[in-house]
Amino acid sequence: MRSRTDQWFECKIQYEKTMEDGLQKKVVDAYTIDALSFTEAEQRILEEMSAYISGEFTVKDIKIAPYKEIFFADSDAADRWYKVKVQFITIDEKTAKEKKTSVNYLVNAGTLSGAVKNVEEVMGGTMCDYVIASVAETQLLDVFEYGRDKKVVDEKPEFEQ
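RE: above sequence
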């Protein structure tokens, strides 16, 4: 659970990438980052990407991401990001008609079925009626959450014999 009142931004970064054949090619990669403003989003994505890209790169686009929440997975196999549209079903007390409210989530998983499973695990703990209306793989390469710890490999101490 995030304690800041920030939101998610999708950022596109353009840079020259060395391809498998050794040639340089300009590419644009998409990332999601949380921030309080467009200015902070640009600053944070520049900081994050400077660790991964050698050479020059530019921020080509920043827009507010359409996600209500992001579900992270701890599995190394979860290397893709899926946009999952969930419709919550409620009954209007006055008209007794069914009403569906759509919410988009960004879900980390290795496969489309894995994304569905991750959503069902999270939603299984709720009392809400819902349907998964759509699942689509995104072009996002990574998500940078403010304050989210990087994976740290626990080092076992060496004991003298």
